[in-house]
Amino acid sequence: MNIWNISLQNIKSKPLYTFLSVFIASLSIALLLGTQQLKRSFENQIENNLGKIDVVVGAKGSPLQLVLASVLHLDNPTGNISYKEALKISKNPLIKSAVPISYGDNYKGYRIVGTTHEYPTLYSAELQKGHRVENAMEVILGNSVAQKLNLKIGDTLLSAHGLVENSIEVHDLLLTVVGILKPTQKVIDRLILTNLESIWNLHDHEGHNDIKSIDEKEITSLLIRFKSPRGLLTFPRRINERTNMQAALPKYELHKLYEYTSVGFKTISLIAYLILVISCITLFISLYKMVKERAFDLAILRTYGASNFQLIKMVFYEGFIVVFSSFLLGFLLLKIGLRFALYCMKSNNQQNILTALSFQDVLQIAMLILIMVIISVSCAIYPIIKMDVSKILSNEK
Fold it and tell me: Of all residues in the chain, what percent carry a pLDDT higher than 70?
């Protein structure tokens, strides 16, 4: 007696119930996996992309915008600050390193950041090919930039004004690729790095021919590392109160943002769990209805030698077929949804901040679903356990 084939035939005989069970379960699975992936992606941005940055100093405005713009490169800057004032700040004895960055241009949607040789060390980035920037108008590429744009050492490029790809405000000074960084899975992979002189030359050349003195030069922000945590206690307050600049704490601002967004994550997760419960109830009703409606057929199987355990296995097989199909469909829906979302954002390449779900995350959700299905199936097999074969057969006659 092939219990597996019987289970498949039972599923085919009730397509509507099977479709509803699979669809509802797959929807909840897609939502659970999706929210988990979004949470992991956000946490990855906080943990990995902060690098070794303790404080960001920039123009007055929103502290969160300053962090998103200068650390994650996901927003527009709040403005510029004086390079001369930034140099004064960097001499504070509490500071271990102060890395200036200046940006406002892009190449095919990827930001061009003017900075110093210390910037890659914030993200433990190393050169894969070529050498570091030594002269103005030289650039090194983040690994993702080099791969997606198929650029190599010696290639030249023309930057465009602004942080969004455009063909209108293109500078006429060529930038030459001299190095490519190793992949880090951090924000630096999506950046094009040069020195501050290159950024200043591009904009001085656009506006007028005289080169600005150091008193007139500006940068976007200053990324600071302290020698000890003691610097966090006094330095930001001093900057905010005594200067026309602001100091933002990246970890604090992003964790605060995470607290706001976690409400949405929890709400979507709750909806997904409710849908999962409904799908389990639907599965239970479907299997229970099958057991009750086919009591005579099951009793006949018993008379032909089938044991209670074999009949129970048949119901379990049906449940697991439905769940396995739901998990595959849910995973497929998730991939299609994410691919569509990334397609909609393809005009801004650096916005792709999603990280892949780990096997542990998928396994955790799969185990939860498996437990709930076992409970549903266990309730549905109760009539089989209490089955009175002689009574059922006599009633049918």
Answer: 87
Question: Regarding beta strands 138-141 and 170-181, do their DSSP bridges make them parallel or antiparallel, or are they unpaired?
Answer: parallel
Tokens read off for 80 = 């510029």
CA dist., res. 54 & res. 40, Å (int): 22
Distance CA 332, CA 335 (A): 5
User: One-letter amino acid identity for 32?
Assistant: L
| pLDDT tens digits along 165-204 | 766 667 778 999 999 999 988 889 999 999 999 998 887 7
Q: Which amino acid is at 388?
A: D
Question: Checking DSSP bridges between strand 245-248 and strand 81-82, what pairing results, if any?
Answer: unpaired
Angle between helices 295-303 and 389-396 (to 10 degrees): 120
Among residues 195, 59, 39, 213, which one has the least CA distance to residue 115?
195
Helix (H) or strand (E) holding 144: helix 143-149
Task: Give CA–CA dist 201/112, Å, rounded.
Answer: 13
How far is Cα 41 from Cα 102, in angstroms, rounded to an integer?
27
In 10 A of CB 21, how many CB atoms?
28
CB-neighbour burial class of residue 378 (10 A; exposed 0-12, middle 13-18, buried 19+): middle
Q: How far is CA 46 from the centre of its chain?
A: 11
Report residue 18 as tokens: 């099977």
Q: Which of 75, 77, 98, 76 is nearest to 86 (CA)?
A: 98
Q: Is the pLDDT of residue 347 over 60?
A: no
Concatenating the DSSP letter of every residue in 158-226 gives EEEESSS--SSSEEEEEEEEEEEEPP-SSGGGG-EEEEHHHHHHHHHHHH-SSPPPTTT-EESEEEEEE
**Could you state, in order of their start, the residue ranges of all structural domains in the chain?**
3-46+256-396, 55-248
